[in-house]
Amino acid sequence: MRWQNQTLDADDGALPGLGRAGFARTVQTPEFDGITFHEVLCKSALNKIPDESDLPFRWTVNPMRGCSHACRYCFARGSHEYLELDAGTDFDTQIVVKTNIAAVLRRELTRRSWHREQVALGTNTDPYQRAEGRYRLMPGIIRALTDSGTPFSILTKGTLLHRDLPLLTLAAREVPVRIGISLAVLEPDLHRGLEPGTPTPRARLDLVRACSDAGFAVNVMVAPVIPYLTDGGSQLDELFTELAAAGASSAVVLPLHLRGSTRGWFLGWLAEHHPALLRRYRPLYRRGGQVAPEYATWLRERVDPLLRTHNLLPEDREAPRTEPAPAPDTAPQLELFA
After folding, report:
1. Who's near 268: CB < 8 A, 6+ residues apart?
2. Which of 74, 231, 274, 303 has its CA 20 to 30 A from that of 104?
3. Distance between CA atoms of 45 and 51, rounded to whole angstroms?
4. Virtual CA dihedral for 227, 232, 233, 235, nearest 10 degrees?
5. Full-model pTM
């Protein structure tokens, strides 16, 4: 497999008693039934984002590839195909773990060329997925970033972050630290169908409260909003009410994006559980991965007044000068393909 190339020329950080040259170990344990871990030694930890990307950061760190959260809509699924694994079940169950990433990151952060730019964690796969409980990579990563004076952000669905809150609180005294929690589905049955490996919505609300109580301004990613399933006005209002009560400082709302292999994986789930919606999705995603502009505008007009009502509108979002007319309770009727 191509990921085996990551094991060459690594010189530190392997798990105790394991060889370094050409290192790769496959692990299955009873507490992670159905999941296989591929332990590798990475040669680099910092990933540079292309300059043309419209993102508020230029560097990321990804301790793992693949994710046991098993979110049907995960945009990162296609990255597993580069490893000669499939973007469906393999992405959910074949997890590549960079066991030496903290040591490699610490070395990279000491280079003269490093200018202490913002580093983002959780932009591809979740650093606090269940495997973090086994491998404990994040404490070393957090310490390396803090000791080097590098500001960082974390985006997660994983309540394992509770474990590191004391460490993150100490880090925030030295460098800017931003915490984001992803939560877009409150309804229990829909949550189990869409993101079966994630902590419950209630557990994530408790995490928002814990982070807020620890002094962090928590931004919640309400993403993705699933057309016709989670975009109802009452659904969004209930979610924002819960987020505000939990102490969230802001929320960012993004519609479902169906790029590459994620499209087929998600639509397969939709066909099985909500087949009547398939015909309605064709015009919504007629341009590929991005949702139709009409829907994106409709969703924003619905969401912005609710965010203002619950005091969750991000500071960098300019509020409209006048209150928009109430959005209709149903999504716009787009012309269907023949």
Report:
1. none
2. 74
3. 18
4. -110
5. 0.87
